[in-house]
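>> Question from a student workshop board

For tomorrow's exercise we were told to take the sequence and the ligand below, predict the bound structure, and bring the output to class. My setup keeps failing. Could a helper post the expected result so I can at least see what it should look like? The ligand is phosphoenolpyruvate.
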Amino acid sequence: MRKKVIAGNWKMNKTNAEAVEMLTELKELVKGIDNVGIIIGAPFTALSDAVKAVKGSNIAIAAENVYPKDSGAYTGEVSPAMLKAIGVEYVILGHSERREYFKESDEFINEKVKAVLAAGMLPILCIGEKLEERESGKTGEVTETQIRGGLKDLTAEEAKKVIVAYEPVWAIGTGKTATPEMAQETHRQVRDVLVSMFGNETAEEMIIQYGGSMKPDNAVELLAQKDIDGGLIGGASLKASSFAEIVVAGK
Ligand code: PEP
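>> Workshop helper replied:
Here is what the output should look like for this input. Compare the format with yours to find the bug.
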C-alpha cells in the first residue's frame, strides 16, 4: 500500500510572517496524522523560517524551484545546496506555470531533477496536458513525453524518490477538476509509462499525486482512486483549515 502524500503549493503567495503564522496553525490541525505525508511548498523568502516553524512536526517543506548548478555566476538563482543547507526536503519542479511563463523544457527540468537528487532532496515532478491537447486526444502522448524527459537517465532507485504530480493544466486554478474516473485513467497511463521505464516493482512504489482544483469537497473521491496517491494543492493550500481537511481526506 502506498502512503498518500498531500503537498501544498503556495506559489508566489505569503510573506515570511504570513507563512510562519499559517504553518503554526496547520501544525496543530494535522498533529498526530502519521499515515499521510504532508508537505508545504513555500516561496524562497519564507523557506528558512518555514523549516524552523515545522521543526519536530509531521510537515516537510518544499521549495518551488531551483537552479541546477552547484554555485557560480547565475545572478538571482538559488542552488540545491543552498536549499539543502536550510533543511528543505522537497523541490517542486516543472510546474505548468514554469513551463508556460519561463519556457522550461523537459531537458532543463531533467537537469533539475538530477541536481535535486544529487543534493539529497526529493523532487516533485509536475506533468500535465493543456486543454487543447486533451481535446485532441493527446493526453497520453504529452504526459509520456514529459515523464520520459523529466526522468531521463534515472536509475530505479532514484526514480523511487521522485513524486510525480499529474496536473491537467486546464484544471489548475480554474475550479474545473478532472472527474475521478478521468484522473484515474491518466494516472494508470502514467504508471504504465513508469513500469516501462523502471519496472513494475518500482512503478508500484512511486507516488503519483493529482493536482488541479483539488478541494476539501472533492478530495475524498479523487483520493479513493486506485492510482491517485495524494494531491498537489494550490489555492486550497493557502488556508490552514482547507489544507488540513484535504490531509484528513488522505487518511
Ligand atoms: C497547482 O498549482 O499545482 C494547483 C493544483 O493549483 P490549484 O489547486 O489552485 O488548481
